[in-house]
């Protein structure tokens, strides 16, 4: 992977065609766009509203903006002209039907445009068998479609985002964290900013990553280690506990994730040495809490006047 340019005036690398990034004003797409721009790789981004602050910031950082949405197949096809790669990620608020429709459509357009390298961001809970629940099966259906296309593609499956653990409503304002694993079990977590750096390294090495499906993560921690890290960074005691069985039984999504963390796809180990090879700046949960995650942690701690 190329080293970031050390000066602001350093030009883009002339012989690199752009990467078309979906979701570039969101978390994953924004992370990818930022990482690509940092290594001087031109970025083209589909944005719904070019005048919103996130779009303007993206443009000011050097990205080329294309006004459009997932529904605009003609706009997307035109945006794929003369690009090297495509990073496809879909928003979490789509229905399962729309997620499959747009995910497969983007891949079809990439194949038709003969894109050199297509990277699709799926989900770490994807397994080898469909569950029969549409919202759980949307991503594996898109993955299967991508693999059938005449397209050099990479599928990444980010593990649970660190941000999920510091959202309001999980007890941090009361000095505790309630989550999905037993205190002595471990969970693999991903810092969203690491996703972009890992994806940028993949775009720089198509020969190695073309045709590969890879789970990605930043750190692996137990419930006890979550408790210690939160206590240290918060500067006050934070205890850890798993959701009670009755709560999990009443919530299909939480129960599915908890089961997957015990003996399903979310329990599979990610090789963190490979992650560090792709991204030497890989963040631990503790370092993320003290850095990019501190604002979210403070917000969760103060909800309801708990701090």
Question: Helices, strands, pairings?
Answer:
Blueprint: E1 19-21, H1 27-38, E2 43-47, H2 53-60, E3 64-67, H3 73-79, E4 85-88, H4 96-112, E5 117-121, H5 134-148, E6 153-158, E7 160-161, E8 176-179, E9 186-190, H6 192-203, H7 206-209, E10 213-216, E11 219-222, H8 223-234, E12 239-242, H9 245-250, H10 252-263, H11 272-278, H12 285-290, H13 294-302
Parallel strand pairs: 1-2, 1-4, 2-3, 4-5, 5-6, 6-10, 7-9, 8-12
Antiparallel strand pairs: 9-11
Helix pairs in contact: 1-6, 4-5
Compact summary:
This protein has 307 residues and is α/β, with parallel strands linked by helices.
Question: Overview of this structure, please?
Answer:
This protein has 307 residues and is α/β, with parallel strands linked by helices. It folds into 2 domains: 14-158, NAD(P)-binding Rossmann-like Domain (Rossmann fold); 161-189 and 218-268 and 283-307, UDP-galactose 4-epimerase, domain 1, CATH 3.90.25. The protein has helices at residues 27-38, 53-60, 73-79, 96-112, 134-148, 192-203, 206-209, 223-234, 245-250, 252-263, 272-278, 285-290, 294-302; strands at 19-21, 43-47, 64-67, 85-88, 117-121, 153-158, 160-161, 176-179, 186-190, 213-216, 219-222, 239-242. Strands 3-2-1-4-5-6-10 form a 7-stranded parallel sheet, sandwiched between helices. It has a 3-stranded mixed sheet with strand order 7-9-11. The termini are far apart. The model is unreliable at 1-13 (pLDDT under 50).
